[in-house]
Design brief:
Length: 224
C-alpha cells in the first residue's frame, strides 16, 4: 500500500516564504492606504523615532539604492550566471517601470516634506539630521521597487526558507526606511513593492527558460 502524497505547500514553491509573508502583510497596508489619509498615516509612523533608528534606517535604505544594487548584482557572478542574469533583469525591469511612472505619469506627486509644506504643517514632521530629503516624484518608491525586484528574484532561486525570509526582511526594511526618512508615503511603498515583485517574477520566468550548463557556473569555476 502506497502512502498518500503530501499536499503541496505554498511555502515549498519557488520563493514561497517570501511571497507568503508579502501576501499576509501588504494587503493590510494597502487597506490602510485606502482607509486613512496620507497625512495621518505618515505622521503616525513619523512619531516613532530614535537615535538608533536614525542611523539604522539611514544605512538600510542604501540597499535599495541603484548604485549599491548594481554592485550586489555583479557580486552574484561569484555565485552563478543564472543568479546574476536573473537579478540583473529584475533590477532593469523594476527600475525602468518605476522611472517611466515617476517621470511621465506621476511627476507632480510631492514627497512628504513638500506635501506638508503646502499645508503649512512641516513643523510636525521629524526629519533625520543629515539626510537630504527629496521633494517631487514620490510615487512609486524606486528604492522599494528595486529592493523587492532583486531580493524576490533571488528568493525565487534559492530553496532555503531561511534565506527567503531574510531576503524579505531586507526588502521590507528598505520600504520602511523610505517612510522613516520621510522620502515617501506608505502608498508609494506599497506600489513600489508590487512593481518590484512583478519585475522579480517576470525576470525569474524569463531567465529560467534558458537551460544551459554554463548558466549554473560562476566566474570562479567556469574554466574548471
Amino acid at each position: 500500500m502506497t502512502r498518500p502524497e503530501k499536499p503541496h505547500s505554498v511555502l515549498n514553491a519557488p520563493g514561497g516564504v517570501f511571497l507568503a509573508v508579502y501576501v499576509l502583510i501588504f494587503p493590510v497596508l494597502f487597506a490602510m492606504v485606502l482607509l486613512y489619509s496620507r497625512d495621518d498615516l505618515h505622521l503616525f509612523t513619523n512619531a516613532y523615532h530614535s537615535g538608533f533608528l536614525d542611523v539604522l534606517m539611514r544605512y538600510w535604505t542604501w540597499l535599495g539604492d541603484g548604485l549599491l544594487q548594481v554592485v550586489l548584482v555583479f557580486l552574484l557572478l561569484m555565485v552563478s550566471f543564472r543568479y546574476f542574469f536573473t537579478a540583473l533583469a529584475a533590477f532593469g525591469l523594476g527600475g525602468i517601470s518605476v522611472q517611466l511612472l515617476k517621470r511621465i505619469i506621476f511627476s507632480d506627486i510631492p514627497c512628504p516634506l513638500t506635501y506638508f509644506e503646502t499645508l503649512g504643517r512641516e513643523d510636525e514632521l521629524y526629519l533625520v539630521p543629515g539626510v537630504e530629503v527629496y521633494h517631487w516624484m514620490s510615487f512609486p518608491s524606486g528604492h522599494t521597487a528595486t529592493a523587492f525586484a532583486v531580493f524576490f528574484s533571488l528568493a525565487l532561486l534559492t530553496k532555503s526558507k531561511i534565506a527567503q525570509a531574510g531576503l524579505f526582511v531586507l526588502a521590507l526594511g528598505v520600504g520602511y526606511s523610505r517612510i522613516y526618512l520621510s522620502q515617501h508615503f506608505l502608498m508609494d511603498i506599497v506600489a513600489g513593492s508590487f512593481l518590484g515583485l512583478l519585475a522579480g517574477w517576470l525576470s525569474w520566468r524569463w531567465i529560467g527558460g534558458y537551460r544551459s550548463d554554463w548558466m549554473e557556473c560562476s566566474v570562479i569555476n567556469i574554466t574548471r
